[in-house]
Amino acid sequence: MVKRSGASDEEAEIVVDVLVYGSLWGIDSHGVRALPVFAKRRARAEMKVVKEAPSMAILDADHAWGPVSAVRAMEIAMEKAEGRGIACCSVVNGEWITNLFYYAMMAVGNDMIGVVTAREGPVCAPWGGTKPVMGTNPMSVGVPAGKEYPIVLDFATTMVAQGHVMTRLLEGRPIPEGWLIDRQGSPVKGRDLSVETIDEFWETGGSLLPFGTYKGYGINVVIDVLGGALNLTGTGSRARGQGFLMTVLDIASFSPVDDFKEEVDRLIAEIKSSPVMPGFDEVLLPGEREHRAMERRRREGIPVDERSWRNILETCGKLGIDAKAIME
């Protein structure tokens, strides 16, 4: 499907790998369900570095498939961070990169700490306001460990990612109060929305709310600046494409890598040994639930809701792909 959009074999492999990992991690809104989005025909992109210094670079993605430009940006940041301690790569003319954790984990796999932030278009109202100004503005941080799972932080700075609202509707579940407001600032919840009306909700000024009240709102605003002002791709209503920043810390430049991992393992063990609060089964680390989901889905397979599966099959049909033959 992705190759039919004009992608090379390598580009298609990157896109599919990122989406499959999204599904394996239980992030269905950013998983294989999104395949039809990447099947749309587009012109060949010519990515190039337009500005750089020893520890920074700006990559013009030329509207390449988001995952392709994000992988290249992280590679650049890692190359520059090695031996220097820290480096970053900002991206202009970027498209949707989907799963930020994937790129943070690229750094983890090279014994580095990866930090990914992305600025998106307006879907989030400022704290105390009603008009969408900022995006979901997600971030991810990947930290290597020794014997334990890596620590992987990955979240939108809104109550949920925009795609999670659709996932909820596709699963037939009600919208929790506190996620959304309409243009007048009234809460939108329960069965107020459906798969058929969600697009109209966004188009008429419906908005997500920032997580964590004013604190999450503050993080959201800063990410808008990092992804849209630092590289001049625009912030708020001036946002153009998805602006993102890859930052990498080379652990070996600070401390022996094995010693670092041992210290992280000790922290993890201490956190896990904390007495469990009533109402909880255990204490989890950031990314632990997703690691477990990946192990389970590798055994049991990736679930796809009926509507999304039908959309995938219809897209295959439009592209002249015999999906049934592939699955046999």
Automatic annotation (TrEMBL):
The domain of life for this entry's organism is Archaea
Instruction: Tell me one GO molecular function of this protein.
Output: oxidoreductase activity
Q: Kindly state which keywords UniProt assigns to this record, in alphabetical order.
A: Oxidoreductase
InterPro entries per record: Mal/L-sulf/L-lact_DH-like_ah, Mal/L-sulf/L-lact_DH-like_NADP, Mal/L-sulfo/L-lacto_DH-like_sf, Malate/L-lactate_DH-like
Annotated coiled-coil positions are none
| Protein family membership | Belongs to the LDH2/MDH2 oxidoreductase family.
Cross-referenced PANTHER family, in alphabetical order?
MALATE DEHYDROGENASE, OXIDOREDUCTASE-RELATED
* Name of the protein this chain belongs to: Lactate dehydrogenase
